[in-house]
Amino acid sequence: MKTYSALGAAIALAAVPFLVGLNEYYLFLVTLILLYTTIVVAWQLIGGYGGQLDLGAGAYHGLGAVVTGFLMVNYGVSGWVGLLVSGAAAAGVAFLIGYPSFRLGLKEVWYALSSLALVLILQKIFLLWTDVAGPLERYIPYAEFDPVFMRAGTKIFYYYITAALLASTFLIVSRIRRSKTGLYLISIRENEEAAEMLGVDVRRYKLQALMIYSFIAAVTGGIYASMVGFYHPTLFDSWISIQTATLAIVGGLGHLLGPPIVSIILLTVQEYLRITLGAVIIGLHQVIFGIILVVIIMFKPDGLGPLIDSLARRFPASVRR
Amino acid sequence: MVVAVVVIAAVVGISVFTRVLPLSQPTPQVSEIRVGLVEPLSGTYAVFGNEARMAAELVIEEINSKGGIASLGGAKLKLFVEDSKSTADGARLAAEKLVNVDKVHVIIGAFISSHTLTMLDVTEPKKVVVMADALVDYLTARGFKYIVRLPPKASVHGATAVDFAVGVFQQNGMKIQRPVIVHFDGLFGEVTADGVYTRLRDLGIRPVDRIKYPTDITDMAPIIERIRQANPDVVFVVPYYADSVLFAKAVASLGLKVPLIVGAGGTGLADPDSIKASGEAAEYMINTYSYDPFLPTNYNKQLVQAFQNRYGKLPTEAAGIVFYTLWTLKEALEVSGKNYPDDPLSGDNLMKALMSLDITSGPAAETYPSGHIKLAPNGDNLYAQAVALQVQGGKPVLVYPFDKAQAKPVFPRP
Amino acid sequence: MGADFGVQLLQTILFGVMLGGVYALAAMGLALLFGVANLVNFAHGEYIMLAMYMAFVFSVTIFQDPVLTPLFNIPLFFAIGVITYLGIFKRLIKAPPLSQIAATVGVLVLLRNLALAIWAAEPKAPPYTVFATSFSIGPIIVPLDKLLAMAVSFVTLFLLNLFLERTRLGVAMRASADDVEAVSLMGVDTNRLFLLTTGISLALVGLSGSLIMTYQAVTPTSGLLFGLLTWAIVALAGLGTVKGILIASIIFGLADSLASGLWDPRGREIVLYGLFILILWVRPKGLFGRR
Amino acid sequence: MDALVLEGISKNFGALAALTNVNMRVQVGEVVGLIGPNGAGKTTLFNIVTGFTKPDRGRVKLFGEDVTGLQPHQIAARGVARTFQIVKPFFGMTVYETVLVGAYLREKDEDNARQRAEVAMKLTGVYHLRNRYARELNTPQLKLVELARSLATQPKLLMLDEIVAGLTPAEVDAMTALVKRIRDEMGVTVLLVEHVMRFVMNISDRVVVLNYGEVIAEGSPSEVSSNLKVIEAYLGGKSGS
């Protein structure tokens, strides 16, 4: 059963480019949607399971873009290497900020705020650090199709990289969810003191979750930089932080299927609204998007995860009958 | 595991598929020319983008109402506007849409130089001609094939600001001793300020300070304080819009006394929007522009009048560039229709047509400061010229070039 | 050179104190809501941004001067506070912190996008006015608009302090900050108390928005920046007293001004938010009491 | 051998002295009851032993090892498990998952951990609830689940903080039997804080009385209940509240 739904999801992912007629623009949009969805799925580790409302996604995403871009531009290093290096760099930053935070028991709103502050601090650091980034956009050399360097003129290249990243992120997260680590993280979310009394090293597991998530967020940033062909400190974008957290919450904290499904649907709706309404009244699509979010959060505080889970459970059953 | 296999299979399959299939496009029957316009309609630079959009709509209406492109059987121009959201990736996304969905033949944009560069990544491979309304020098110096730029480039603006200041000082029997350069830290700010610096250096003058500030600055007081510490006799400033308003207001409210303040780059200080937003603080502010709304030609007077009637404001930088860019496009289309009737709208033919132009009369020439448009091989206008406007009595007036000036510049600032 | 630097330093310190004076008002609104109703309003900065935009709107349509906009902004934002409380906050009061953050992040998204739709993300600043002038004391320049803003802020905080210490309602508010249950046992209608607290909190925001606009421009991202800044001040001050908020605000105002003036205007966020994170690490309870 | 030794423990909260120079010993295999009026410092003492609170002065020794200042999970790793006065359930987890968290402390392998969890659930009688979410359970059930997850960690010292508060007399009797089984069959040392005298006196080998942060009496249940000071403290505590 499970194999079939995985196969179905894989075929659907593989088929999308043909559904949009291989149109570069639509491919660009769906790639973006999958890229942001990947961050949402990874965020589950720290937010959904670990219960830390992290708003640092923009920092790690930006770090991925800047480090990968820097290596590609300045040293001609392949983007693939760049993704790994930037992921490691992001995990390192996550450690530096997470270790003292968790050790000193930063929680709830204070943790959320400190992670958001990280986005802005890093943005300004790289704005001042002109050897690496600075205020001027840096352009990654153009290549018609260079898979080794990880740069291509066609978006389909980036689409499949992103789809593979999303699929593997989903698998990693679902595997962690079923493992001891996942169980420990959820127990931390549910009650930190009780978890600790059962021998759960709360700091260590929070830190692990944060580092894995930041690694993946950085990879999305690296792919993004290569796809748009430049990097700049504005890619440390606090909006990505907020978008990630809201989509994950609306999708249902700690639910496996809810967040990616909700994220894909809502981001698609947002892009659709942007294309159709964006030119009529600028920004209207974002208001509608905002209203959708608030309404869901107000009336379904647990998000749509439970709903989606029960649908997912019902669906195969009805087929069997 | 399964997912990975399928995805990898798909990657291989599709990359082969796209490689093998020739993406042939049938030659279109020319009934319309699709013109894309990428501008910052929202966000930090929205003031410019919206002015450019107004100008584009006005001029395209006029071209169409006068019979469209004669050599293409009266084909009409159709405008496709996209918002860059004032970000580099937004401009890129906009270009993707125009090129891949709307299939435009030419793009005008993206006002902000760095945004224009990200657009070229999309347009160059698809051979879509970009007519840039962005000023940074190296847009046309990086070997891109399908770009032209009519307005004077950033370094020309910088040099013009210096020439003007030197002239004003000379008229009053003085010499510049202690100039200060102030600019935002983006691409355009850097390059324009470099233009100022280079021209000053050529004249043997050393600036006493060069102050950078972030594009999203919200409080100018610290900058003004640093200027005051430098005790300058002239301040060269390169702002965009919002920061120019903050700058003007901070100069007034903190009582900064400098004999001359000259903006370079036409994106603030002395245009109608800045004047409206800064109020009295805008008085005596000077800036260089790529367009002279007071150019005393018949067509220009008529166009400025039409613009003012419809939108209630004077067209300056953003609108002016679009004026002559669109009229130049029209001339090029006429040539292309005549010379390459088989495929008049292909990027290559359109570029050839643009390169063959030498315009000294007609609407394009009548709206261009020097009255002369002829492109160099890199796509820049050989006869590029910038002008300077000063706010006097709440209205911009032309003060440079001195021979065409409507009024003498007010100097020193009271 | 030394004398010049001395002047510059004095000038920068003066700017910093003035900034801090204005920040205090914005932070007080947050501290009040967080302290009394124990409500985490993650969208606090977005309300400040909205207040700044409204101050802009009022100053270009009705008044010519942002200095007069509090006349409209204070009642308007009190009303917005009441509406927000009844519509959203009321059901959040007893919710766990994570739900409060989630819901108010939703509000943040909505308000920010609303501002985007209405003002197209353009930076807006009110016109230059009579108050935007300055006088000098020796080599030091004193900007009148900022001085006025600081004075209004101080007077307001003084009155608020009186209200909290001398009136029955104010005492109930302070008591609620310590122990909600005790207050409801005292026979105070906590629902009404929280409604009023939200109203006052946002009225303070309305006023602070007007004052900030006397010297600043507003963009939709201003919300985020002021949001973090006010939270940082509350983190430093703890939820103790009006005095604590005032001192913490001035410390942040000084940090802001010194960073921009003596280092690099682009570095101010690094200093401010770096300081914030350090405070969270080093002083988890704030300088002046509990958090 | 001593399971737990407290040497001169003191803890102040601001001006309030929660514990003053507390000395105490729990021998392996003992059941020790800790009693005293509200505010006597019993829960603070528990928090100090389990590492949630750092003492101002004094040492905590577990099975001969000085563990003062260690973190709770390190204390847990050294064989201490604890239930809480106000239950701290994992609302979003099933009973099975909850107990499994505890089991993972000593069983790295998933299958072994599952077995261990099932044993703990069967012993405490919550096995039939294993697929229910904690938020669906009532307080007595939650207390049993808390006990189950503690036992799943295979503790050497079990600390129970008012485990029978709010239970019916029948449930108290059942709990008494359960704790005795835990001690006898699993050889677990038990330290419990309790107000329900019937429970304490029935089950404890030894009773320690705390009042205002000081140990005021110590001895067998019968010795202590006849000790006048205890009665005073209780009477004083009761009339005061």
Provide a descriptive summary of the structure in words.
The complex is a heterotetramer of chains A (321), B (414), C (291) and D (241). With 414 residues, chain B is α/β, with parallel strands linked by helices. Chain B is 43% helix and 16% strand. Chain B contains 13 helices and 14 strands. In chain B, helix 3 packs parallel to helix 4 and helix 11 (317-339) crosses helix 12 (347-355). Chain B is globular. Mean pLDDT of chain B is 90; it is low at 16-28. Chain C has a single domain (2-282), classed as ABC transporter involved in vitamin B12 uptake, BtuC (Orthogonal Bundle). Chain C has a two-stranded antiparallel sheet with strand order 1-2. Helix content of chain D is 40%, strand content 26%. Chain D has helices at 42-49, 72-77, 95-103, 110-124, 139-152, 169-186, 197-203, 221-226, 228-240; strands at 2-13, 16-27, 31-35, 57-62, 65-66, 80-82, 157-161, 189-193, 206-211, 214-219. A 6-stranded mixed sheet of chain D has the order 6-7-8-3-9-10, sandwiched between helices. Chain D has a 4-stranded antiparallel sheet with strand order 2-1-4-5, covered by helices on one side. In chain D, helix 3 packs across helix 4 and helix 4 (110-124) crosses helix 5. Chains A and C meet through helix 4, helix 5, helix 10 and helix 12 of A and helix 4, helix 9 and helix 11 of C.
- What value does the Rg of chain A take, in angstroms? 19 Å
CATH architecture of the largest domain in chain D: 3-Layer(aba) Sandwich
Give me the side-by-side strand order of the main sheet of chain D.
Answer: 6-7-8-3-9-10
Count of discrete alpha- or pi-helical segments spanning 4 or more residues of chain A: 13
CA radius of gyration of chain D is: 18 Å
Class computed from helices, strands and strand pairing of chain A: mainly alpha
Total domain count of chain A: 1
Number of strands of chain A: 4
Give the fraction of residues assigned to helices of chain D.
Answer: 25-40%
Main β sheet profile of chain A: 2 strands, antiparallel
Topology of chain A as a string of helices (H) and strands (E) = HHHHHEEEHHHHEHHHH
SS class of chain D: alpha/beta
Pfam family, one (chain C): BPD_transp_2
Protein name (chain C): Branched-chain amino acid ABC transporter permease
Subcellular location (chain C): Cell membrane
GO biological process, one term (chain C): amino acid transport
